[in-house]
Amino acid sequence: MRLSKKVSLISIAVLLLVVVVIGAVLLSYAKSQIIRHTIEQAKAEHRNLNTSFAEMTAYYLADGDSPAVQRTLVIYCFSRFATDTSVLIQDGETLYTRTTLDPAQILPLGIGDEQKVYRGEVEGRNILLVGRMVSVNDFYYSVYRVEDITYIYNNIQQMIVRFILIGIAGLFIGTLLILLLMHRLTKPLLMLKEASAQIARGDYIIRADIHTRDEVGELAQDFNAMADAVQSHIDKLTDMNERQSLFISGLTHEYKTPMTSILLHSETLLTADLDKKSTENSLAHIHDQCRFLEQLTHKMLSLLVL
Predict the structure, then answer these.
(1) How far apart are CA 17 and CA 263, in angstroms?
(2) What is the residue range of 255's domain?
């Protein structure tokens, strides 16, 4: 696998991990904040309902009122501040409600209890209950706020879906940017690889045309310096080969002339009937040519040693 593909895959994997982790953290935080805000708002509204109901009931309710009058006044005072989520219970009897749920079975209340909260799934719906007992003229009333928060969970699910879609789009865009960036970063390396391949094929004139101010640019400069050194060495070897060829050519010519002369004189001595003086002249000529060859050989050996 190419280096660019490895780096791209690692970068994409890291990007995916970062998106998933950050997304999970943000979604978890957003969900907890939304639910916490909903609970705090419900508790605040429940406290306001308790305070308003207790004050108004205490103002209108008299000790001498009959139970029927008291019951009617309590229901009236509660209804002035109640909403569709409010429930009023006294001694197990529901005095006011607009919901089918019985909050007392889900969230029992006791005298002296602080404000209690229940959040869970009831009959396939996500329900938030807030309750507390209120004392009015020595009578205790259970005041509940029953809120269906299924829509909040639906909104959270929609938020998760939107975030996933945004994350996928961001991951896709990030992947494209990573691929483009890796192509741009590895392009000088590909150029350097192509230049080295051409030099390996014998094209020693090629140089890496890379001028980036980074490690790749420095590597390209070192590569070009190496190519220059190789080119210089090859030029020296070529020049040396040419000189050797000229030297061998000249040496062959220098050897050929005396050798031809020696052969001619030796053949003459072998085939012709020469007088003593002619024989001596031929032998002297052969001797001179041999001396010349000896000196030429010494010179050649001296040059080879150098």
Answers:
(1) 92
(2) 215-305
Q: What is the CATH number of the domain that holds 42?
A: 3.30.450
pTM above 0.70, yes or no: no
H/E stretch holding 223 reads helix 215-271
How many folded domains does the chain comprise? Answer: 2
pLDDT in tens, 253-296: 777 778 888 888 788 877 877 777 888 888 888 888 888 878 87
- Show the tokens assigned to 9: 């895959």
CB neighbourhood size of 218 (10 A) = 12
| Residue 129 CB partners (closer than 8 Å, separation 6+) | 103, 106, 107, 116, 117, 118, 119, 144, 145, 146, 147
Say if residues 216 and 210 touch (Cβ distance below 8 Å): yes
Please name the residues in contact with 3: beta carbons below 8 A apart, sequence gap of 6 or more: 186, 189
11-45 as b/e, with b when 16 or more CB fall inside 10 Å?
Answer: beeebeeebeeebeeeeeeebeebbeeebeebbeb
Q: What does the pLDDT look like over 222-245, one tens digit per residue?
A: 877 888 887 888 888 888 888 777
147: helix, strand or coil? strand
Question: Tokens at residue 101, please?
Answer: 């749920």
Q: Are strands 139-148 and 86-90 parallel, antiparallel or unpaired?
A: antiparallel
